[in-house]
Write a structure and sequence with these properties.
Shape: elongated
Distance between the termini: 61 Å
Radius of gyration: 18 Å
Strand order of the largest sheet: 1-2
Order of helices and strands: HHHHEE
Helix content: 55-70%
Structural class: mainly alpha
Strand content: 5-15%
Number of helices: 4
Number of strands: 2
């Protein structure tokens, strides 16, 4: 009979920070304020997340592939946005 074990059972709880790296990569662009740094953070995090998926593709990487795809699409949406100022109510004035 074949025994089965989970990732946590085999590797212990020290594997949890590694599993949370992709989660933090998706949170970072949400924490950066709008502007050029927001766009840069989104592109860098999307690239690192794609790299994580490729490097860990045969084990856990494919579980993160959908989020990597969404991150790349979201970063691509930000590429064409240019912030030219703010309105009095705080909304951004954008130009495509």
């Amino acid at each position: 009979m074949t025994e089965r074990a989970t990732l946590l059972e085999v590797n212990g709880s020290h594997v949890l920070p590694v599993l949370l790296v992709p989660v933090w990569l998706t949170v970072v662009p949400l924490l950066v304020p709008s502007g050029p740094w927001h766009r840069a953070a989104a592109h860098v995090c999307a690239g690192v997340l794609v790299g994580f998926v490729v490097l860990s593709g045969f084990s856990i990487g494919m579980f993160y592939a959908p989020s990597a795809l969404v991150m790349v699409l979201a970063a691509a949406q930000l590429t064409g946005r240019r912030v030219v100022g703010r309105r009095e109510d705080g909304d951004l004035l954008e130009r495509r």
